[in-house]
């Protein structure tokens, strides 16, 4: 684990924080994650996995939702506090050099897409973000995504902003349009499953970023599994978190 | 500083081994730690046939503890021999292969398959269920575990460790396996444990129950080591909740010859190296130059 220092801990709303850390992450790739611990002793025992939300030399940002004990402790961190970080870990999104990249995010699944979009944008690729949330107040970092100059397609479950319903509906409509496309999706399992189905039906390649409870993040405990499509289990921390959708769905 | 440890004809360069199932097969750990610097490596449990393991969730966290129900996922002994073991054997330290089976014959077949491999020894995981006894673990049944070790001893002359479950008739099982020819004991495996997911109104682990490891179990396993050493004076690998050099010395003081570090490696891949370095510092603080001088010290002092 490497020691990082809290530069800023920005409360974005009641449940969401942007944690900006100073420290060096060696050659990270979009879609990879880090294991984070920011408390002394062994309670909580395990480090917590988080996607790389943004990265610059000597700077790492995490976007997180306050869920339980670990994230509550992270939310309370003050500037100057030390944080242990292990990473970058796992397999990120595949390299894309042509065509259009469609990012599909549900809820906090938006986390890995800021840096991903930034990097893809640098390559001059066209990016279209389909972003679903419960209500208009649950969208995160919308202004920053707009500033990247990518296309945004919002949907909310209650219809308070954008399309009313699940993000897969507008996605389906869009996928019918011609052109070379690839989908990167991150969000809750039911959303990933729905995206995988739409992509398969329309013959579009899709990659999904998975979640699982993790102890080590390094393929050592075999604790972080998700059922594979064929037989057996896939280890999210070493074979993922990003995998081709058909491996799971 | 002299950290060497001798157990039944094997010399370990120091008392820190990596416990079964907590370091993968070293593929990633080698980036954080020189595996050759350790006293030894105990592999993930290997069975005759490949095993998929349990459905998720496989882990749950409790205060200072980890409950796991991995389900002994492993590639099976043939793939293990061909692809997994060779790079592990390249590390310049002792490699013990942890094996298990659901029948005595399966244990014997795994041992047979490994007989020509240049490993340092076998560790038997007897915490797994015995099919012939309706799922009662081998390690809870002195008569069966005796038969297992006796049978194995007919064909396997090498270094043989039995890893005990921490519950059940532990002392009787320990005595029995030593009489049947085991060289040493690993004390102990994880403690049967349960976690509940109230939000979803079910058990937190996919398989239902699991095994508790980590700092939460250290005082319990320390007592087991103390009790077993007092009764049996046999070579013991202490294993349970070790996270520091001080923990290692406490185990050795209670009668362990060496230790195995498990969950600590999962918490931070640099932990085994840190623990090793701390042993020297702690010995220095205690004014000792030889680890051996602390061994079973509790039984030598007047208290
Ligand atoms: C690869 C990966 C990337 C992630 N990226 C982000 C991110 O960028 N932003 C974000 O807000 N969240 C992310 N998560 C989820 C995040 O790890 C959990 O919300 C967090 O661990 C909860 O910890 P807690 O102590 O607050 O909750 P508790 O419920 O107290 O945690 C108890 C245990 O369960 C584990 N756990 C609980 N929920 C999850 C979950 N959904 N996924 C994995 N483990 C869980 C914890 O790690 C811990 O070991 C990611 C998960 C994974 C696997
Ligand atoms: C994720 C995990 C996997 C394990 N797999 C095995 C195994 O395959 N065989 C075995 O004998 N013990 C296994 N164990 C038990 C450990 O080797 C060790 O005995 C136990 O965790 C107690 O030590 P600790 O508190 O230092 O972790 C496993 C433990 C954990 C946490
Ligand atoms: S978290 Fe340990 S193997 Fe994935």
Automatic annotation (TrEMBL), chain B:
GO terms for molecular function: dihydroorotate dehydrogenase activity. Keywords: Cytoplasm, Flavoprotein, FMN, NAD, Oxidoreductase, Pyrimidine biosynthesis. The keyword Lyase does not apply. Its EC number is 1.3.-.-. GO terms for cellular component: cytoplasm. Its main location: cytoplasm. The active site is at residue 128. One of its GO terms (biological process) is 'de novo' pyrimidine nucleobase biosynthetic process. Belongs to the dihydroorotate dehydrogenase family. Type 1 subfamily. Heterotetramer of 2 PyrK and 2 PyrD type B subunits. This is Dihydroorotate dehydrogenase. It comes from Thermodesulfatator autotrophicus. The lineage of its organism: Bacteria, Pseudomonadati, Thermodesulfobacteriota, Thermodesulfobacteria, Thermodesulfobacteriales.
């Amino acid at each position: 684990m490497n020691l990082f220092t809290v530069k800023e801990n920005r409360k974005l709303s009641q449940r969401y924080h942007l944690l900006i850390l100073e420290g060096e992450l060696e050659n990270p790739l979009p879609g990879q994650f880090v294991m984070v611990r920011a408390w002394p002793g062994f309670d909580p025992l395990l480090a917590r996995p988080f996607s790389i939300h943004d990265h610059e030399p000597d700077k790492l940002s995490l976007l997180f939702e306050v869920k339980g004990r670990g994230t509550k402790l992270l939310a309370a961190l003050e500037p100057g506090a030390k944080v242990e970080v292990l990473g970058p870990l796992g397999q990120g999104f595949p390299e894309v050099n042509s065509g259009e990249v469609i990012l599909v995010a549900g809820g906090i699944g938006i986390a890995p897409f800021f840096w991903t979009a930034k990097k893809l944008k640098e390559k001059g690729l066209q990016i279209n973000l389909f972003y679903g949330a419960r209500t208009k107040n649950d969208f995160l970092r919308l202004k920053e995504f707009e500033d990247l100059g990518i296309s945004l397609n919002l949907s909310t479950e209650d219809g308070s902003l954008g399309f009313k319903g699940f993000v897969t509906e507008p996605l389906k409509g869009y996928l019918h349009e011609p052109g070379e496309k690839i989908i990167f999706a991150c969000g809750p399992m039911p959303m990933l499953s729905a995206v995988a189905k739409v992509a398969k039906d329309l013959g579009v390649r899709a990659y999904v970023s998975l979640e699982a409870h993790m102890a080590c993040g390094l393929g050592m405990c075999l604790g972080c599994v998700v059922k594979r499509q064929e037989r057996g289990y896939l280890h999210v921390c070493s074979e993922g978190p990003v995998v081709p959708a058909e491996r799971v769905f | 500083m002299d950290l060497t440890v001798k157990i039944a004809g094997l010399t370990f360069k120091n008392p820190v081994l990596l416990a079964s199932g907590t370091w993968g097969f070293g593929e990633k750990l080698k980036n954080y730690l020189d595996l050759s610097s350790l006293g030894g490596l105990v592999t993930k449990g290997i069975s005759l046939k490949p095993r998929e393991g349990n459905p998720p969730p496989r882990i749950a966290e409790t205060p200072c503890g980890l409950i796991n129900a991995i389900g002994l996922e492993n590639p099976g002994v043939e793939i293990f021999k061909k692809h997994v073991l060779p790079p592990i054997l390249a590390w310049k330290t002792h490699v013990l292969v942890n094996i298990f089976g659901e029948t005595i014959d399966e244990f014997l077949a795994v041992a047979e398959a490994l007989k020509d491999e240049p490993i340092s020894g076998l560790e038997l995981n007897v915490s797994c269920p015995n099919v012939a006894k309706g799922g009662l673990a081998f390690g809870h049944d002195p008569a069966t575990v005796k038969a297992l070790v006796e049978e194995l001893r007919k064909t396997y002359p090498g270094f043989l460790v039995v890893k005990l479950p921490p519950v059940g008739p532990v002392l009787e099982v320990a005595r029995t396996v030593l009489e049947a020819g085991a060289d040493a004991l690993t004390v102990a495996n994880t403690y049967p444990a349960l976690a509940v997911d109230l939000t979803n109104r079910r058990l937190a682990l996919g398989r239902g129950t699991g095994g508790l490891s980590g700092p939460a179990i250290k005082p319990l396993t320390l007592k087991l080591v103390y009790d077993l050493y007092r009764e049996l004076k046999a070579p013991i690998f202490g294993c349970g909740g070790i996270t520091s050099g001080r923990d290692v010395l406490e185990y050795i003081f209670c009668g362990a010859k060496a230790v195995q570090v498990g969950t600590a490696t999962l918490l931070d891949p640099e932990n085994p190296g840190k623990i090793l370095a701390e042993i020297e510092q702690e010995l220095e603080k205690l004014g000792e130059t030889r680890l051996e001088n602390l061994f079973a010290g509790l039984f030598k002092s007047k208290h």
